[in-house]
Amino acid sequence: MNKYITIIAAFFLGTQAFGQEVYLNQKPPGLESEVFAPNIVSLPGQHEYGSVFSADGLEFFYAISKDGKNEILTLKFANGNWGKLETILTHKTYSYNDPMLSPNGKRLYFISDQPLDGKGNVKDYDIWYVEREGEFWTKPINVGTAINSEKNEYYISFSAEGALYFSSNKNADEGKNYNYDIYSSQHKNGEFSSPIKLDTVINTGRYEADVFISPDEDYMIFCAIRKEGMGQGDLYISFKDENDHWTPAVNMGSKINNELHQLCPFVTADGKYFFFTSNQDIYWVDAQIIDSYGTDKDK
Q: By C-alpha distance, which of 99, 93, 103, 158 is closest to 128?
């Protein structure tokens, strides 16, 4: 065989093998959403949510709720195989959930109701993070009062430039703690700026949370509870228009939503797969489905 053909064939086989290794060796989904990694990640008797893959698809983090405990788990590909499931954040009293990697993958952000000193009773949910130190993670570090309030901060997502998107009920009226809004904060000189509440095409005075922002900040997907919704909580999508304004959010319809609660959206760094939680399991679908919401096609 021609040596150049041999080299090309070897490269092709190598990329095929790599493609099979990423995303837990799971067969890629089509345009119909399906449960992700059944009997590995999505298991009976627990609630899985808040999933995120590393940029290379070889490291996976997600949260589970089981027997009253909320904790964060990870799976990692190394030495030619996916390793055993590991719990990296857990506590008998405090909850850890909604994991999300920073753009450079060196920090794992999450939310927790643990007190700042790690002692005593649970408090409201704050945004925290741990940093990589070799093969290990530091102890949890609170993001601080620039972002966190005396009420709840939920779910975290980053643009490629490090802009932070999250939700909070810090401005909810008394007796209306369900009123979560979506905020954004820029990251400059190692610090987050004062958060800005997104305008009324996104925030409605009810529940908007669990926001995923695309790397270029050209679209966002979030969970909302609205009168026209299909169930307990639906996923909506909004795009930036030519004037850099958010378009009115559109319900993602029966391709994604149902009578249950859809939440925790995430799109992989390669732009190929869209993950979310439904019916207490993690689902995934080909991310090409997102393009259909930017047209006049049937949703």
A: 99
CA count, 13 A, side-chain hemisphere, 86: 14
Buried b (16+ CB within 10 A) or exposed e, 18-27: eeebbbbebe
What's the CA gap between 195 and 201, in Å, rounded?
17
Q: Are 23 and 57 in contact (CB under 8 A)?
A: yes
Q: Given the structure tokens 């027997």, which residue do they identify?
A: 67
> 218-244, pLDDT tens digit by residue?
999 999 999 888 888 999 999 999 999
129, 107 contact by CB (below 8 A): yes
**H or E element that contains 110:** strand 107-112
Euclidean distance between CA atoms 249 and 261, whole angstroms: 18
C-beta of residue 207 within 8 angstroms of C-beta of residue 180: yes
d(CA 270, CA 70): 29
Please give the model's pTM, rounded to 2 decimal places: 0.90
Q: What is the dihedral of CA 52, 172, 70, 255, to 10 degrees?
A: -50
| HEC sequence for 137-157 | ECCCEECCCCCCCCCCEEEEE
